[in-house]
Amino acid sequence: MPGMVLFGRRWAIASDDLVFPGFFELFLRVLWWIGILTLYVMHRGKLDCAGGVLLSSYLIVLIVLLAVVICTVLAIVCVSMKGTICNPGPRKSMSKLLYFRLALFLPEMVWASLGAAWVADGVQCDRTVVNGIIATVIVSWIIIAATVFTIIIVFDPLGGKTVPYTSAGPGHLDSHESSQLLDGLKTAAISVWETRMKLLCCCVGKDDHTRIAFSSTAELFSTYFSDTDLVPSDIAAGLALLHQQQDNISSRQEPEEVISHSPGNPQEAELDAELENCHHYMQFAAAAYGWPLYIYRNPFTGLCKIGGDCCRSRTTEYELVGGDQLNCHFGSILHTTGLQYRDFIHISFHDKVYELPFLVALDHRKEAVVVAVRGTMSLQDILTDLSAESDSLHLDIDLQDCVAHKGISQAARYIYRRLVNDGILSQAFSIAPEYRLVVVGHSLGAGAAALLAIMLRSSYPQVRAYAFSPPRGLLSRSLCEHSKDFVVSLVLGKDVIPRLSVTNLEDLKKRILRVIAHCSKPKYKILLQGCWYELFGGSPDNFPTELDGGNQRDLTQPLLGEQSLLTHWSPAYSFSSDSPLDSPTKYPPLYPPGRIIYLEEEGASGRFGCCSAAQYRARWAHEAEFSRILIGPKMLTDHMPDILMRALDTMVADRPACLTCPGPGVPSVDVA
Known about the structure:
By secondary structure, the protein is of the alpha/beta class. Helices cover 50% and strands 10% of the residues. Among the domains are: 5-154, no CATH class; 266-501 and 592-604 and 613-658, Rossmann fold (3-Layer(aba) Sandwich), CATH 3.40.50. Keywords: Calcium, Cell membrane, Hydrolase, Lipid degradation, Lipid metabolism, Membrane, Metal-binding, Phosphoprotein, Transmembrane, Transmembrane helix. It is a multi-pass membrane protein.
């Protein structure tokens, strides 16, 4: 930090990012130099041949050139190790060293070309020498190609537009010019991000929904990333520091008192019943993922179990719509749910932006018509996730401020139209009119399931929804409260998705700015110690941060270090409330659906949840407990459906035997 300025433009790399690449290049160059020197010393007597003088000159010049390069790279590494993230002063000579290092590539390229030409002429010398020269030429071109690739990676398309204003900012311009500058930068940033998204998702398609999703995603990314002078390694260092700080604060807190409930306690009985329901309906949410999740969960036997279904042709017993390997999908669904062919009303694997796969089945055990919505599994689904603006819902309920996540609400509307307009639900209830409607899903599917239940409740008052690991940024406050009567969400451990919203991401950005501004250690030490801590644990007290969690206060005034991390035209520069991500119209605060069951980990298990079985305790939780993103190795693994299913298996096995017997006065939710 900040991004280096070379050739009159900003680059997406800081002057303290060259320690690890420099050491790697230094290692290769030294080995290469020793090899060339050894080759020359041991075989120079064999160069008395046609063209030998040229090869001898080539090796001598290469040895000298490599020595100069090694000294330059060593100087770059030493300078890059100085200072801190927010104190680049000791590294002010870095630009001159890089200019010199880049200038050395010219003779390297010339010499590599000459070496290739001489070898191609068929020099008649000792074969060992010739092979050594060939290897030298190949290594030279590999390093040159790697350097060109690195330059492409760290190239910032907006670097040339932002550099003239990084020091002075637009404050020296009048209001009209300043407004034009900001609008121009914003438009350029959105265009760059939209181009990146189109390149990344080039095979998604070009329909109207896709174009809208690209535009929404580009605007979100440009708003979030364009107002800071952070490079990717700064964010990685900030996340490492936040994890250690978070664990340090947790270790200082008093352990929570565990309140025991008598078996007849209504709240405890209701929790037991809902846990059993979650355990049952999670099978449907997992089945909606089709064969990929089934094979992932059963790597050795899964393919054998569904192989026959993949090759079997069934066209009359069930209705399949869209997608590839449909019979494989259906085979995995049968094995996951334990249902029969005749129990399925509709299965759709049609997958586009704002249009999610789903299935409808008759669950005779619970006497329910189950609608299961698939979670994120494709680039189209990711674009649906990232369409994070708020979208108004037109519902037949008397509520103020009915808004929700745009992408997920569009996906819920699509499924609603399919279920109602295509008569899928009517067909299901014509077969089982006494059954209740249950909507389930995991991740993206959980958000769509909750919104779908809200839309269907006017027609099906007894509808219930089970949302497994739903995104936090889903519903407005009024819809969140409304959904508590019929939606149950389940959150596991440190899962990041139930804590993920635009508001929480903005909070995370400010926390990263604060923690790296207060850190007194160089970045390479933060990253090394952070990697060690993530892999092997340790005491967070031994890690580099001067922050004390007990003394934190609201970030209303920027410290000098934090201020230096923000671009001077950023609305967040003054830490005012008019940050684009705090906009009450486009990105209002959104909340998770329904009541929340929190499976909280007890004790310590493997760092990534794969070395030992974790133990959990279940409790009702308030949405405020998920108002901050937690950093840790399990923030991603706890979201995986197979990990959640394993945790539910453990929880249900350890609960009392009266799971299916609700306490007095508790509704019979286990039949839902």
